[in-house]
Every structure is written in C-alpha cells, then in structure tokens.
Amino acid sequence: MDSSSTRLFNQLKTSEPFFLMAGPNVIESEDHVMRMANHIKAITSNLGLQLVCKSSFDKANRTSSKSFRGPGLVEGLKILEKVKVAYDIPIVTDVHESIQCEAVGRVADIIQIPAFLCRQTDLLVAAAKTGKIVNIKKGQFCAPSVMANSAEKIRLAGNENVMLWSWICVADDLIVDPRNFEWMREASCPVVADVTHSLQQPARSKVWIISDIIDMCDRFDAFEAHWNEMRIRFLEASLELERNPGDVNAPNQIHIAEQDEIALTAEFEKLQLEGGGVASGGLRELIPCIARTAVAVGVEGIFMEVHDDPLRAPVDGPTQWPLRHLEELLEELIAIASVSKGKQSFKIDLTPFRD
Fold first, then answer.
1. Other CB atoms closer than 10 Å to residue 160's CB: what's the count?
2. Whether residue 172 lies in the annotated active site
3. pTM of structure
4. Please, what is the average pLDDT of the chain?
5. First-to-last C-alpha distance (Å) of the chain
C-alpha cells in the first residue's frame, strides 16, 4: 500500500473540525483551475482547514450527449499535476472505467468512484490496486448498508484507505437524509458530505432563483426591451421578498412563464463555454442548509464544488457555490462544528427515571 496515501488518509480522517474537498466541477482550462486552486488554498490556509483540490477531466456520465465534458484524460491529468505541484495540495478526481485507474493513480491522491458506478467490482478493485485513497460516492439507489460491501471490495483488494459519501434519490430529485451520515459510519470509513451535487435538479431547470435571473438579465443586451421588462418583473419579486421575508407567497424561487423559460434557457446556453449544452438545474441557495446540517452531524469531510462565475460554468452551474462567498460559509461551518458533538455517540440511558 502507498505509504504517502496512508499518511494523507490518516490526516484527513482526523482533521478538525473537517477537511474540505473543493474546486470547479470540471476542468474548463488550465488557467481557470489554477486560479481557482490558488484562491481556495489561500482561503483554507487562512482558516486552518485541510484542502483537497477537486476537478474532473471528463464528465462522462452526463444526462445529455450535448453536455460539456472537459479536456479528457491525458490533457486533464497534465493540468491536475500542474495544480498539485504549483500549490502543494492533494488532488481528487473521478474515474469511469477500470482502464483509467492506473494513469489517474499516478497523479491523483484520491480516486473518486461516481455514484452510478459504486458497486462495479472491477472498477473498485482497479482503483484499490493503485494504492491511492478511494472515495466512493453512495449510489442514489443504494441503502447506506450496501456501501459497506463496496468498501469491503476495496479492502479485500489490499487497500484500507477508503472513504464514503452520501445522498439518496427520490423520484427525479436528490434528497439528503442526515441519518445516512450516521449509518455509513458503520462501514468504519470517514464520511464525506456532498453539499453541492446533493442539490441538483437533474436535467431540469424549471425552477429559477430570482437573483440568478436578475444576474443573467444583466448580462444580456440591456437595450432589448424584452430583457429589461423581464428584469423589472423579477426585481419587483425580489423586493417583495425583502419586504416580507416570512411570507410564503414571496419565495426566492419561482416558476416562470413558458415563453420566458424558453428565452432564459436559450440565453443560458449561450453563456456556456464552447462545447457546452444541456445542463442540470439546481438549488444553490440551499447549499448552506445542507452544509450546516452535515457539520452538525459530525462528518469528517465536506465536498463542495466552487466557481468564480457560476452563471458561466459549463456544467452544474446552479449547484456550484460562488467563490466570493466561500470563506464566509466556511467560517460559519467551523463555528457550528466547534460546538457540535456530532462525532461522538450519544450515550442513551434506558434505565427507569426516578425522582
């Protein structure tokens, strides 16, 4: 087993209050991922958090064949290696085929197994044999107990360095069940909470966040009356929300008219990088909610996709956290973790209570 991987694994599982896996969803360019790594490392170093830089070289499991995929294995690994060397930070990236594992293991410190592939024995064994830490995303279709079997496949291949993370799928939505964080500890693995993917609205974007619409309208031709009129309507909705923050009739997300939905979707796709296409929707405003819950429960790690310009992100823009708010959110999570006893089992006394 790789001794450097074991050292990193021990550092991560004992990190206090938690470690952070963060970075853009996909490698958009060498310059972009380098800038993102630089900014994120500066923030985590200031806060005293252990950082693992994340970005994908190939989004091979997107819903649509038109979706942006990234630079591919060879070029992507060259870029990730430059990030690793330049900023002296561990790297995590995902694999989709057994044949990719050896090459990825020469660069990445952690090999990530996508949720849809979490039970693929050949892939798990190939990842394990690299000696690198293996991070298995719990399949949306799997009970927490099933993940113990996936972790065992890694161990039986001679690798004890395995981590698990959780979410669960209900119909066409993704639901975070905090009980999974507790139950998955039974596999004797560090548990990582994915606080951004968990809020995807896969292959749909019918619900729009008011602030996002305003930002998008600002980017479009300000001289087009249609966009000005739409922006005014959503600004009015936003002001109504500010005036009545507790009013259930003034939510911060709305269903919009079909003609506006078509127009917004078309313009949103124009904002994507060349080669982009259909993208998932998401509920970015709930990322702090999921993150607060996870650190209160006491997970070992937080996984968070971060972007400096989410509206222009070619993949999963609606669930990438804005870089400008990263430090603020992490400060809050550290404060919550400092007063939580989530990593300790609650001792329940069932003896009869007596006055």
1. 15
2. no
3. 0.76
4. 80
5. 57
